[in-house]
Amino acid sequence: MTQLDQKAAEYGIDLSVDLAGVRLTNPVCTASGTFSARESGQFYDISELGAAVTKGVSAVPWTGNDTPRIAETYGGMLNSVGLQNPGAEAYRRDELPYLSQFDTKIITNIAGHSIEEYCEAVRMLNDCPEISMFEINISCPNVSEGGMAFGTDPVMAERVTSEVKKISSKPVMIKLSPNVTDITEIARAAEAGGADAVSLINTLMGMHIDLKKRRATLARKTGGFSGPAIRPVALRMVWETAQAVSIPVLGMGGICRGTDAAEFLAAGASAVSVGTAALSDPAAVVRIKSELLEYMKENGFASISELKHAFHI
Amino acid sequence: MSDRKIPEKSVIAAEVLSNEKIAGGIIKMTVAAPQFAEEAQPGQFCNLYPAADRLILPRPVSICDAEKESGTLTFVYAVVGAGTEEFSKLKSGQSLRVSSPLGKGFRMPSGTGQKAVLIGGGVGTAPMLFLAKELKKRNIHCTAVTGFRREPFLSQELKAAGARVITTTDLPSPDYFLGTVVDCMEINEISGDCYFACGPRPMLAAVFDYVQKRGQDVQVSLEERMGCGYGACVGCVCDIREKDKDGREQIQRRKVCKDGPVFMGSEVIWS
Ligand SMILES: Cc1cc2nc3c(=O)[nH]c(=O)nc-3n(C[C@H](O)[C@H](O)[C@H](O)COP(=O)(O)OP(=O)(O)OC[C@H]3O[C@@H](n4cnc5c(N)ncnc54)[C@H](O)[C@@H]3O)c2cc1C
Ligand SMILES: Cc1cc2nc3c(=O)[nH]c(=O)nc-3n(C[C@H](O)[C@H](O)[C@H](O)COP(=O)(O)O)c2cc1C
Ligand code: FES
Description:
The complex is a heterodimer. By secondary structure, chain A is α/β, with parallel strands linked by helices.
């Protein structure tokens, strides 16, 4: 038992949640692209995580975009990493065995340029017993083809979901883009395609200009906007989506503290992911879990469902 | 698996012991961090975290000095934006969030009695002090060629560490060489058994050119915009030439924060 799980037991608080049939010891997970087992694990015990959501992986290696890929903005940041990753084979060989020694669930985030590429990556990892769930990223703003194109069109979103569902032997969660007029339309399309869960939000499209250098700060000009500045938008979208679909929602976007996590759970999320906060504080995910636990103790919530039912929004 | 990590890195609230201007817009800050001072290697950096909520990314800053005896780390930084501006206002007794030493630093030459050339441009001089001290312990003689746009700094500290110091500036002065560090090395025919450089990329490229002409190589410390600063986000890559297992050359995108910041000049794609 981890240090915090021990503490929860002492408090008589049950932090566990169910996400599309997968039991998580607690609702606090990493967000794809901001976690790497070997590196993040230098700062905290990975077994504390509800789930380790890993960096986007594609069927073949991707080199990503040129640098600069990172810009800081007011209370947030932009990234244009462009899903650089060593491919499904390397992920299977290097990342999975390492990660599987920890007592946490593994959710593998999948990237692709086409339905065929998403399916190919899923096919390559389908038989890995370590993986509990696939999260399909149909919402990356940093790749030219595919990526966000699937996440902004309900017809495409439903198609990619149903095609992946046909071959996946694990629950499938679709990661939604906030760069749409009505996110519930895409969420419903994913549900119609057979999704077991949806996760949101991915980054918002943003831009930053370097006044000294007189050009865009990012080599790609635009990038994905994340961090505390986007939290109200993310919370609103999680709330809307949780009402619109009957499948569970993994909520994220700017979560920095335990009370932020509580807000997302109150808005209808079954569990939460912590992304950019791990850049401001490498051990943020564990701190947030600890703060959520203290918040529950102070407010007399013995379980996550008690917390959720205490709110009338 | 045998390589399972127990958490060994951390971010601490370190007490600021001093934070003083040493040249125009350049500040030297010493903080108490005994554990980190013990672990630090020359060429490594620490992430310094601004306190303001609106500044969410770490500021990577090279370790200028690490003293095990006093348990302190020293940084020398230029005030260039909101983060370093905030650091510049810290008073002794206040605290600053500092990460464990990160990245792969300079590889130490194996023999003793060799001659090393240390080349620093502007704040790139900072890691050269820690390096000079460690090289001296290994009985390696150091020549430091340091270049500045205007006011030089760290010359006394480098001399105290036993290095011969040659300083260049862009402004005419009787005390300093006028021109670039590479001009200076050419005119003074400076050479050694090994070379280390940190500074703006064009300077590093010119230094690599200089050593390559002599059939030698140089360890260079690179800079890139960082997200996490510890290897999790793949924000900080640079293109590095590597040989695969069949000896074929290929270009890999490596993380400056994790695989670097120090690379061999011959590995870097300069253009
Ligand atoms: C490995 C490494 C070692 C460094 N060592 C030193 C040092 O010893 N002394 C020193 O003065 N500076 C050093 N720098 C540069 C230092 O990180 C930046 O000057 C600093 O981050 C600027 O922060 P700011 O908020 O004042 O500037 P702003 O321009 O307001 O910063 C905005 C964002 O851009 C990033 N950024 C801005 N300039 C740079 C830069 N040159 N390199 C990387 N990121 C940048 C910041 O971290 C921040 O995320 C180093 C950089 C790297 C990568
Ligand atoms: C540097 C970086 C890389 C990311 N990479 C991915 C990725 O590979 N796949 C993905 O689905 N989302 C990726 N994201 C989006 C995050 O998982 C998350 O949805 C978003 O950042 C909002 O949460 P946050 O504000 O807590 O960061 C990335 C975000 C950042 C900042
Ligand atoms: S800055 Fe995140 S990997 Fe280097």
